[in-house]
């Protein structure tokens, strides 16, 4: 088995922590995590793909073990997150690569595709949305904050940062919650409890509206470039619902859509099945 190594990259003074596995020279695969997690969410997936790909899974800025600079020195927007990750790929020599995007990783990865479409060889989207069709009613309180960024609407979103909310994200829609390891969610809650992490996440909740504004641009990219595309979707996701997965086929008729009977964090229950889908898709 190819071992996973744990490294940091200096990205113009910004420390990005990342996991790496696989042989240099193999096809490259960039794994981009979501809220409120980090690269550790791929711990079960990486060993199942490392014999076929050179895999890198960074922690996004403000997440996991990557730098979380103060908000007065770094603006926590998805544009800035994507800029750091784009430079990260250049620093580590990822010149052409497939991307696996989940949740926040989707608007990050899709920005990379818009910026340098020639670098993207394929896209796997696991509950990574690019269509308003895919936004559930669960977004209502966050949309209220977009429309009125008042202190009251910001404070109302703190309930999404509690340990109970993290546990719910991991287990909602899973037929048997007993199969979901507590390890990932407990580590997420550890990172969320760091001083200042709450306001970083609230800033990103507010800026998520910039992703929705870019949906037409993402969709134009899919239509124009038609990258090999696999949507591997937890069909019981309370945030990104199945119509968002099906919508990819509107702009890229060759997109493949597969649903799994699980929730938002599909890798917690279906890492083996998703890995098999990726191997078949990228054979």
Characterize the structure shown.
Keywords: Hydrolase. Residues 29-270 form the AB hydrolase-1 domain. GO terms for molecular function: hydrolase activity. This protein is of the alpha/beta class. 41% of the residues lie in helices and 17% in strands. The chain has helices spanning 46-49, 78-91, 105-115, 140-147, 151-156, 163-171, 182-192, 197-225, 242-246, 248-251, 267-281, and strands at 5-11, 14-21, 28-32, 54-58, 97-101, 120-125, 229-234, 256-260. Strands 1-2-4-3-5-6-7-8 form an eight-stranded mixed beta sheet, sandwiched between helices. Helix 3 (105-115) packs across helix 8 (197-225) and helix 4 (140-147) crosses helix 8 (197-225). The two termini are 19 Å apart. 43% of the residues are buried. The mean pLDDT is 97.
Short description:
The chain is an alpha/beta fold. It is built from 11 helices and 8 strands. It is 41% helix and 17% strand.
**Number of H/I helices:** 11
What is the makeup of the main sheet? 8 strands, mixed
| Count of β-strands | 8
Shape: globular
Average pLDDT score: 97
Q: What is the alpha-carbon Rg in Å?
A: 17 Å
SSE ordering: EEEHEHEHEHHHHHEHHEH
* Percentage of residues in strands: 15-25%
Roughly how many Å apart are the termini? 19 Å
- Give the class from helix and strand content and strand pairing: alpha/beta
GO molecular function: hydrolase activity
Domain AB hydrolase-1: 29-270
Organism: Bradyrhizobium zhanjiangense
Pfam family, one: Abhydrolase_1
Show the helix and strand layout.
Elements: E1 5-11, E2 14-21, E3 28-32, H1 46-49, E4 54-58, H2 78-91, E5 97-101, H3 105-115, E6 120-125, H4 140-147, H5 151-156, H6 163-171, H7 182-192, H8 197-225, E7 229-234, H9 242-246, H10 248-251, E8 256-260, H11 267-281
Parallel strand pairs: 3-4, 3-5, 5-6, 6-7, 7-8
Antiparallel strand pairs: 1-2, 2-4
Helix pairs in contact: 2-3, 3-8, 4-8, 6-7
């Amino acid at each position: 088995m190819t071992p996973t190594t744990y490294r940091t990259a200096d990205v113009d003074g910004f420390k990005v922590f990342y996991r790496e596995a696989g042989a240099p020279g193999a096809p490259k695969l960039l794994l981009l995590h979501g809220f409120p997690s980090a690269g550790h969410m791929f711990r079960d997936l990486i060993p199942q793909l490392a014999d076929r790909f050179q895999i890198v899974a960074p922690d996004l800025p403000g997440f996991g073990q990557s730098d979380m600079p103060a908000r007065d020195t770094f603006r926590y927007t998805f544009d800035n997150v994507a800029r750091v990750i784009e430079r990260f790929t250049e620093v580590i020599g990822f010149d052409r690569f497939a991307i696996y995007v989940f949740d926040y990783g989707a608007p990050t990865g899709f920005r990379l595709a818009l910026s340098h479409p020639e670098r993207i060889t394929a896209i796997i989207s696991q509950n990574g949305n690019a269509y308003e069709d895919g936004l559930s009613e669960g977004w209502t309180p966050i949309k209220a904050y977009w429309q009125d960024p008042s202190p009251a609407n910001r404070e109302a979103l703190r309930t999404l940062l509690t340990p109970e909310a993290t546990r719910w994200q991991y287990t909602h829609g899973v037929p048997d919650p007993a199969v979901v390891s507590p390890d990932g969610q407990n580590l997420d809650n550890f990172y969320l409890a760091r001083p200042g992490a709450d306001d970083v996440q609230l800033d990103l909740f507010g800026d998520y509206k910039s992703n929705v504004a870019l949906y037409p641009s993402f969709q134009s990219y899919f239509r124009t470039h038609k990258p090999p595309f696999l949507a591997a979707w937890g069909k019981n996701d309370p945030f990104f619902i199945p119509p968002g997965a099906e919508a990819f086929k509107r702009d890229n008729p060759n997109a493949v859509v597969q649903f799994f009977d699980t929730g938002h964090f599909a890798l917690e229950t279906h890492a083996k099945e998703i890995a098999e889908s990726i191997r078949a898709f990228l054979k």
